[in-house]
Amino acid sequence: MSSPWQRYADDHTRSVDIMTTSLLFAAFLLGSEVSMSETDRPDAVGPTIALAAVACGALFWQRSRPRPVVAVTALCVAGAGVLGHLITPMLLGPLMLALYRLAVTTGRRTSRRYYLAALTLVVATALLLDPVGHPWVLKTISPAVWLLFPVVVGNLVRLQRAYVEAVQARAEYAERGREEEARHRVVEERVRIARELHDVVAHHLALANAQAGTAAHLSRTHPEQAHRILGDLAGTTSTALRELKATVRLLRQGDDLDAPLAPSPGLGRLSELTDACASAGLDIRCTTEGTARPLTPGVDLTAYRIVQEALTNVTRHTAARTANVRLAYGRDQLTITVTDDGTRAVPGSRAPGGGGGFGLIGMRERARSVGGAVRAGHRPEGGFEVTTRLPLYSDTPVPQERTP
User: Domain ranges in the chain?
Assistant: First the structure.
């Protein structure tokens, strides 16, 4: 987290540069007055002021052109040494700031190379062209230490900024990943809700439509049968309304953990499903091969919904009078086969495998959700067949259904 001074410096770079340059200009002139003795002080006020003005004036371009600024300030410091001034930290101020800015904005190799070049220039001119003869320690070790300090600090600041930027980038990437995951989950939930509504509404409305049509056909010739079918129709619509109400209530009160739960439908309710279809005039024969075994909730619900959708398609889209449901239990999978004897489509309807509906799509999605597969198509001898293979044991959880 940046300090208030750092935030102010970032927002007012021009003002900060002016203040810094003014202070360094004053420090340069003050440092030029420092000497070992009164006799060692050079009498070169004009050139000293000119060197200070050039060195500090170049600092206005330290952010945009750090390399030329380092060169200019190094030449000015070397010129001060040629005039006979003692190389103190106050004289090195503009060069130190230029090296710091270079280390912050460039890489470690560049800052090291410019540091060595500037140090060589300053030390060489001080050793070879010093008219006063200051001690060699003050002309070599002192500049090396003081010029190394801004390079080290600048590299540390650059690494810290790079670390902060990397952390921010990772945080932004993680946030985008969470948003993408949330959107993906929303899409999956919408598909699941649409599939549940389709299973509930399409099945019962198809049965109700078939029952109403059968009752209308038998109302004159067999009024007793028509009356019985109308009673079944009332039960079908009541069940549809009850399940639809339960689904809508679940959507509205998704966070209500105290709402009562009802067990999810499974193959145990297959007889209820076949009885409802029989009232619509469809004769259903159920056979079981192998030893029936309990299924996990996810596979049980998937098997029930696929059989329900397959029988709904038979009721809606074909003129079949008979349908067969075969449950074959293998060693590690359950094979469900639903066939019908329909040879022609009901006028104004589509064949079960025709495009435009979502029944087969929903069955395939349900099967894939538990690791199974669905194959559907017309039989050579006539009719339609839906074959589903589901694993007997799946770890896929199933959402509980709430009662109305």
Answer: 4-134, 191-402
CB of 81 closer than 8 Å to CB of 74: no
pLDDT for the residue 348: 40
Dist CA 105 CA 57 (whole Å):
20
Mean pLDDT, consecutive 10-residue stretches, the chain (404 aa), reads: 62 80 88 69 80 90 90 91 86 91 90 92 87 80 91 91 89 85 77 68 69 74 75 71 66 51 72 78 85 84 86 76 89 90 51 53 83 88 88 60 39
Q: How many residues does the chain have?
A: 404
Tell me the two tokens of residue 103.
Answer: 């280390």
Q: Is the dihedral of CA 137, 157, 80, 32 positive or negative?
A: negative
- Give 388's strand partners: 336, 374
Is the CB of residue 85 less than 8 Å from the CB of residue 143?
no
Cα–Cα distance, 123 to 87 (Å, whole number): 9
How many Cα atoms within 13 Å fall on the side-chain side of residue 189?
10
Helices (H), 59-92: 66-83
Q: Which amino acid is at 281?
A: G
SS3 label, residue 395 = coil
pLDDT of residue 4: 67
335 DSSP assignment: E
Cα separation values, 129 from 17, 37, 79, Å: 33, 19, 10
Residue 288 host element (H or E) = strand 283-289
Does domain 191-402 fall under CATH 3.30.565.10? My reply is: yes
- HSE toward the beta carbon, residue 104, CA cutoff 13 A: 17
Joined tokens for residue 81: 């040494």
pTM, two decimal places: 0.49
What is the per-residue pLDDT for 345?
Answer: 45
Q: Which residues contact 88 (CB under 8 A, 6 or more apart)?
A: 31, 34, 142
Number of CB atoms found within 10 A of residue 242's CB: 14
At 270, list the tokens.
Answer: 């297959």
What is the SS3 assignment for 375? strand
What's 291's DSSP letter?
A: -
Say what the pLDDT of residue 326 is.
Answer: 92
